[in-house]
Write a structure and sequence with these properties.
CATH architecture of the largest domain: Alpha-Beta Barrel
Distance between the termini: 45 Å
Strand order of the largest sheet: 4-14-13-12-11-10-6-5
Structural class: alpha/beta
Number of domains: 2
CATH superfamily of the largest domain: Queuine tRNA-ribosyltransferase-like
Radius of gyration: 20 Å
Number of helices: 15
Shape: globular
CATH class of the largest domain: Alpha Beta
Number of strands: 16
Length: about 375
């Protein structure tokens, strides 16, 4: 996959860069944010809505889709693109994070993970080979190696054990992917290592040595202090290939994204924009808004006068508060669209600033606006 990723511009003062990922379902300009459609749908948002706000790639989850409706059914429908009517690229997480979150319902061995289904309690086994096989059956553009997500906090012994298991599984994933024998999506390896700098660097170097099309940094945003997160990203960056896309898994807040871009990250995903939207927390260029605050009851202003999304062009804060108070389904759609539009504009702006050699200005303006009154 020699032409999978190209770098178009780099900032001379930091690690930020603008690039392009080429897939069978279209090009993905980076830096990019991927809306999360865990079960093959972005909650409250239709595929044509995503196209209108400029989404280029979405994420779905192997764990959930493997349990329900299953790889065989999705394959019979022509793959995940056809099943969910999304024409653009799709990335599937391997399910490692979901297995991590099922600590009381799973058993990890060198062979794989045995767990109880969160849907019906059935006993399920997932191996590196079956995780890759499911993603190949989905027909996605980017698939992820199965990893063991290192918890926080973790002892050095636990972090090293998890890191080594993740590497062994990544090697098996690569063999399964290569044995597919026909054009398939791009496989990404995931580095771990906890928050021990030497382990982080070694894991990144080991994953880079597998020479896969892409690479990810996992085990972040698990409750650790933000400074530890940034240090882990910087350490991993020194071990990963500078010529391949770097994906920060599960990151996160707008600040996570702008700081990740500064440190060389190309790809981001998180449930925050849609989950927080459903709970009434909305992102603007001047900070976050809780739409249930009484001060919005008579507010005729849009959420963000700097935003061009459908919600901000047509509706007041007062109306959105009214919808939320009355649990109207329309609120879920409007709020989700707005937050996703904000995230996509954030990375689009970063990319444009990089192409114009103005990222330092963009980074500074982000904080100046975020710290102002909303």
């Amino acid at each position: 996959m020699a032409n999978f990723f190209s770098i178009e511009s780099s900032d001379p003062t930091c690690q930020a860069r603008a690039g392009l990922i080429s897939t069978a379902h279209g090009d993905v300009p980076t830096p990019i944010f991927m809306p999360v459609g865990t079960r093959g749908t972005i909650k409250a948002v239709a595929p044509d809505d995503l196209e209108k706000i400029g989404a280029k790639i979405v994420l779905a989850n192997t764990y959930h889709l493997s349990l329900r409706p299953g790889p065989d059914l999705i394959s019979r429908f022509g793959g995940l693109h056809a099943f969910m009517a999304w024409p653009g690229p799709i990335l599937t997480d391997s399910g490692g994070y979901q297995v991590f979150s099922l600590a009381g319902l799973r058993k990890i061995t060198p062979e794989g993970v045995t767990f109880r289904s969160t849907y019906d309690g059935a006993k399920v086994f997932m191996s590196p080979e079956s995780a890759v096989g499911a993603q190949l059956a989905f027909g996605v553009d980017i698939l992820m190696c199965l990893d063991e997500c290192t918890p926080y906090p973790a002892s050095r012994e636990e972090a090293e054990k998890s890191m080594n298991l993740t590497l062994r599984w990544a090697k098996r994933c690569r063999l399964a992917w290569e044995a597919h024998g026909q054009p398939a999506g791009a496989l990404f390896g995931i580095s771990q290592g906890g928050f021990y700098p030497d382990l982080r660097k070694k894991s990144a170097e080991d994953i880079a040595a597998l020479d896969l099309p892409g690479q990810a940094v996992g085990g972040l945003a698990l409750g650790e202090p933000s400074e530890m997160t940034l240090e882990a990203i910087e350490t991993a960056r020194t071990g990963l290939s500078p010529h391949k896309p770097m994906y920060l898994m599960g990151m996160g807040t707008p600040r996570d994204i702008i700081e990740g871009i500064k440190r060389g990250a190309d790809m981001f995903d998180c449930v925050i924009p849609t989950r927080n939207a459903r709970n009434g927390q909305l992102f603007t260029r001047r900070g976050k808004i809780n739409i249930l605050n009484a001060r919005h009851k008579d507010d005729q202003n849009p959420l963000d006068d700097l935003c061009s999304c459908y919600c901000c062009r047509n509706f007041s804060r007062a109306y959105l508060r009214h919808l939320h108070q009355n649990k109207e389904p329309l609120f879920l759609r409007l709020a989700s669209l707005h937050n996703l539009h904000y995230y996509l504009e954030l990375v689009r702006g970063a990319r444009e600033s990089l192409l114009k050699n103005q990222f330092s200005w963009y980074y500074k303006e982000f904080y100046e606006l975020q710290d102002s009154e909303s």
